[in-house]
Write a structure and sequence with these properties.
The structure holds three protein chains of three kinds. By secondary structure, chain A is of the alpha+beta class. Chain A has two domains: 227 residues, 3-Layer(aba) Sandwich (Rossmann fold), CATH 3.40.50.300; 85 residues, OB fold (Dihydrolipoamide Acetyltransferase, E2P) (Beta Barrel). Chain A contains nine helices and 18 strands. Chain A has a six-stranded mixed beta sheet, sandwiched between helices. A five-stranded antiparallel beta sheet of chain A has the order 13-17-14-15-16, with no helix packed on it. Chain A is globular and about 75 Å long. The two termini of chain A are 38 Å apart. Chain B has two domains: 53 residues, no CATH class; 166 residues, MetI-like fold. The longest helix of chain B has 32 residues. The radius of gyration of chain B is 23 Å and the shape is globular. Chain C has one domain: MetI-like (MetI-like fold), CATH 1.10.3720. Classes of the chains: A alpha+beta, B mainly alpha, C mainly alpha. At the A-C interface, loops of A face loops of C.
């Protein structure tokens, strides 16, 4: 079980209100991702749930019980840290067994359990090594192993992949997702990388300046961003946000069109521009186009788009794919 | 630097460095050498680096004249005792300062260090009276306490700078793993800080061993360590050099040998946060 | 990274150290303040009573007082200057590619293990003694008059001896700092066309600022109360030439046996030490930020 409910949770450091007030319900078994730019309070929120920081006010319930004042050890949660936080003086086995030792489990049963976890994580051959002798990905798996053996009510991940290189990050993303499908335990995952959020989450919580901007499934956020901030944050490359006459024409302050929702033409279209940079990825081509009156717009074309620096292009948004935002940044329906 | 070092350059620097090092070490070497000479050859003119009449006589004389084992034992008990007691009190304090720092942490640390700046001579009489009144005068436990308190700020500072290098996330991980504070300090912090703690121990044993104000003024016979032993060999006239050297060697040899063996360990932690 | 409960624990764990140090400082200090206003002479125990500020005025009017203060500052400053300058030079030298760095370090660190009274007595008797000292013999060998170190240059000799004791400490801390300097920085500077001297001036030296700060702080703490070296070598003489403030207090207490005056001197010394401390902490504190 791992239902977590935050009610009017606030956190201030002195005069700085890192989290003005947050209400959030995380259902049992959900994979929830907190995403937002650095300094948005996502890590603080996670640490509040973990019990590593006190809430300034508000309550945190775990499985229906008020856990606001409980120390971290008593909350039944497990956490994977950004730096992995492995115990450098212990072998991998000892690292994984540590929570069990602290729980007072007898060593034999603990060893068995650690070995089982190691098997799942492909660590069996490394059990006698120290963390210093492991690669980044292996360390990451040890950290996860240490979390698994506790059989926690929920897993907390604090930017666990940010210290890995790109290829490894992709693999670990899959592994963590698979792990969630196997264990079906609540997971709360903090990241600044919207790709991780989109690919892993059941539910994404977008944060900015300590406030929740939007909560929803990845596709909800992609298709129906509640405001310009979410629209700009979710999706890669970023959504093109335009102001001025084009926006006013549809009764909005800002309109947004995703790069993949722009038609490219060399002859005619809504906006005329010049290609500044063409990024050829093979499968796709990203064009950065200087559009008169709107600055740079990003467009995604197919791999066969044959445009180069200096070429003139015309861009037209696909019908029904334009997002409209009002004066306050909120989406207009 | 990754650049190839020419042998000539290396030879030059080797010679220069060894010359300087030997100059620095020479007084110690000369003392040890003199301790094996007869009194006559110790003051021979011109001075002799090597003599024909090596002798152990000085050592047996010194041994016979004073109760060296008792002084030695007192030194061992006082320096190790004060260091261990100091560590027991300083580790929790350094933990607090390093991992739960407040706005006043630095001021507190500086205040602790400033207590060491009080000239010992200034508080000699009060200290003497306090030790007399409390029955601590000329006791080992009294000196253990005094030297512990004297070095406590340095112990705390050293441990503090060392603990600060340990990422707080690891301690948080232990907390998440269900470790109590005691277990966190016992199973995670202390093992991780072993090099720092060892280095702190070494430095403090050295400082306590070499302390020569309170150890002399607050003792008479029973608790007097080697600093008092050497003080009893003061101001010798000419024919006394070899014996003085022997006594000096006996006073410094234990700590010198310990220092040589622990040198690597000592140096590793002897940064006081000076190296980032 | 802290919760209220961990802050409470932290205070609890700090308490023993803070309380013990506070008592260790305040009780003798309070007694010293009390004595400093009393007439308290061990040689005439019948005369007691309040002395007012006479103990203090005696100190201020004593010709030795200002000499003592300037000697104290000269001693601290002199040793600091010598150990840091030579410490940097020796650290630079040992940091070069040389054969036998390990044994070298052992030799250089050795004086640090020598008890101060032993160090002082070695230098006084085996080296600086006007007849039998090695330096006197060396001078005679060169056909010169032996220098009467402790008679002619008492303070200078004490500064020299003390510097010998503290040089290893300074060298080692500076060496560790030096070895932590990334060679990439130096190589970048070399690419930028910096000469060896300006590399030292603009890269190496700033890198060592923290280490130098630490050396100054720690050595000052120990040097301000230097006693054994003076006691063993010159006993403050000849005359009062090498008397420092702590030594002057010691003389009042144990030779003149005037506890009142010694206490007044003690209070003055404490105030002086605190001025130095505040000055040090202010100027050093910012370098020690982590």
């Amino acid at each position: 079980m791992g239902k977590i409910v935050l009610k009017q949770v606030r956190k201030s450091f002195g005069d700085v209100h890192v989290i003005p007030s947050v209400d959030l319900t995380i259902e049992n078994g959900e994979f929830v991702v907190f995403v937002g730019p650095s300094g948005c309070g996502k890590s603080t929120l996670l640490r509040l749930i973990a019990g590593l920081e006190d809430t300034s006010s508000g309550t945190i319930e775990i499985d229906g019980k008020d856990a606001t004042m409980l120390p971290p050890a008593k909350r039944g949660l497990a956490m994977v840290f950004q730096s992995y936080a492995l115990y450098p003086h212990m072998t991998v086995r000892k690292n994984i067994m540590f929570p069990l030792k602290m729980a007072g489990m007898d060593p034999e049963a603990a060893t068995k359990k650690a070995d089982a976890a190691a098997k799942v994580l492909n660590l069996t051959n490394y059990m006698e090594r120290k963390p210093g002798q492991l690669s980044g990905g292996q360390r990451q798996r040890v950290a996860i192993g240490r979390a698994i053996v506790r059989e926690p009510a929920a897993f907390l991940f604090d930017e666990p992949l940010s210290n890995l290189d790109a290829a490894l990050r992709g693999n670990m993303r899959l592994e963590i997702t698979e792990l969630h499908q196997t264990l079906k335990t609540t997971m709360i995952y903090v990241t600044h990388d919207q790709v991780e959020a989109m690919t892993m989450a059941d539910k994404i919580v977008v944060l900015q300046a300590g406030n929740i901007e939007q909560v929803g499934s990845p596709l909800e956020l992609y298709n129906h961003p509640a405001n310009a901030f979410v629209a700009g944050f979710i999706g890669s490359p970023r959504m093109n946000l335009l102001e001025g006459a084009d926006a006013a024409a549809v009764g909005a302050k800002t309109i947004g069109v995703r790069p993949e929702h722009l038609e490219i033409s060399t002859t005619a279209g809504q906006w005329k521009g010049t290609v500044a940079v063409a990024e050829l990825l093979g499968s796709d081509t990203f064009l950065h186009v200087n559009v008169e009156g709107h600055g740079t717009m990003t467009v995604r074309g197919g791999g066969d788009v044959n445009l180069r620096h200096g070429d003139t292009v015309y861009l037209t948004p696909q019908a029904g794919k334009t997002h409209r935002f009002g004066q306050d940044g909120k989406a207009l329906v | 630097m990754a650049r190839a070092v020419t042998p000539r350059r290396k030879l030059f620097f080797t010679l220069a460095a060894w010359t300087v090092a030997l100059l620095i070490f020479f007084p110690v070497f000369w003392t040890i050498l003199t301790s094996f000479k007869t009194e006559a050859s110790a003051v021979a003119t011109p001075p002799q680096l090597f003599t024909a009449d090596w002798t152990l006589q000085n050592y047996s004389d010194v041994w016979a004249r004073s109760d060296y084992p008792r002084f030695f034992l007192n030194s061992v008990i006082i320096s190790i005792g004060s260091t261990l007691l100091g560590l027991m009190i300083a580790i929790p304090a350094a933990w607090s300062m390093a991992f739960v720092p407040g706005k006043k942490t630095k001021d507190l640390l500086m205040w602790m260090l400033s207590t060491k700046m009080m000239p010992a001579a200034a508080v000699l009489i009060p200290m003497y009276l306090i030790f007399q009144k409390t029955g601590l005068f000329d006791t080992r436990i009294g000196l253990v306490l005094a030297l512990m308190l004297m070095n406590l700020p340095v112990i705390i500072w050293m441990l503090y700078t060392y603990f600060k290098e340990i990422p707080g996330e690891i301690l948080e991980a232990a907390r998440m793993d269900g470790a109590s504070l005691k277990n966190e300090v016992l199973y995670i912090l202390t093992p991780m800080a072993v090099p720092g703690i060892a280095s702190t121990m070494l430095l403090n044993i050295i400082l306590a061993w070499n302390e020569a104000f309170w150890t002399i003024t607050l003792t008479t016979v029973n608790a007097a360590p080697l600093s008092a032993f050497i003080a009893s060999f003061s101001a010798p006239q000419g024919l006394f050099y070899a014996k003085l050297s022997a006594a000096s060697t006996m006073a410094i040899a234990p700590i010198l040998i310990m220092g040589w063996f622990g040198q690597k360990q000592l140096v590793r932690g002897l940064t006081f946060g000076a190296v980032k | 990274m802290a919760t209220q409960s961990s802050r409470a624990t932290a205070r609890l764990m700090l308490a023993p150290s803070v309380i013990m140090l506070f008592v260790w400082m305040i009780v003798p200090l309070a007694m010293t303040i009390w004595f400093s206003f009393r007439i308290y002479r061990l040689l005439s125990p019948d005369r007691t009573g309040w002395a007012g500020i006479r103990n203090y005025t005696w100190f201020f009017n004593s010709p030795d007082f200002w000499l003592g203060i300037s000697n104290t500052l000269l001693l601290v400053g002199g040793v600091l200057a010598i150990t840091i300058i030579f410490g940097v030079l020796i650290a630079l030298l040992i940091d070069q590619p040389v054969w036998g760095q390990g044994p070298l370090r052992i030799l250089v660190i050795s004086p640090f293990f020598v008890m101060p009274p032993v160090a002082a007595s070695i230098w006084k008797n085996l080296f600086m003694h006007p007849q039998n000292g090695l330096l006197a013999s060396a001078a005679q060998g060169l056909g010169m008059e032996p220098i009467l170190f402790l008679q002619s240059y008492p303070l200078g000799s004490i500064i020299f001896i003390t510097s010998w004791e503290w040089l290893p400490f300074a060298t080692l801390i500076l060496l560790t700092a030096l070895q932590s300097l990334s060679s990439e920085q130096l190589e970048a500077a070399e690419m930028d066309g910096a000469s060896a001297l300006s590399r030292f001036r603009f890269i190496t030296l700033p890198h060592m600022t923290r280490a130098i700060t630490v050396v100054i702080l720690i050595q000052t703490i120990f040097l301000l109360s230097i006693f054994g070296e003076i006691f063993t070598t010159t006993q403050g003489g000849p005359g009062s030439a090498s008397t420092t403030l702590p030594y002057m207090i010691y003389k009042q207490a144990l030779i003149a046996k005037d506890i009142g005056r010694a206490a007044a001197g003690g209070i003055i010394a404490v105030i002086l030490a605190n001025i130095v401390a505040v000055f040090l902490m202010r100027s050093m504190g910012k370098h020690l930020d982590t």
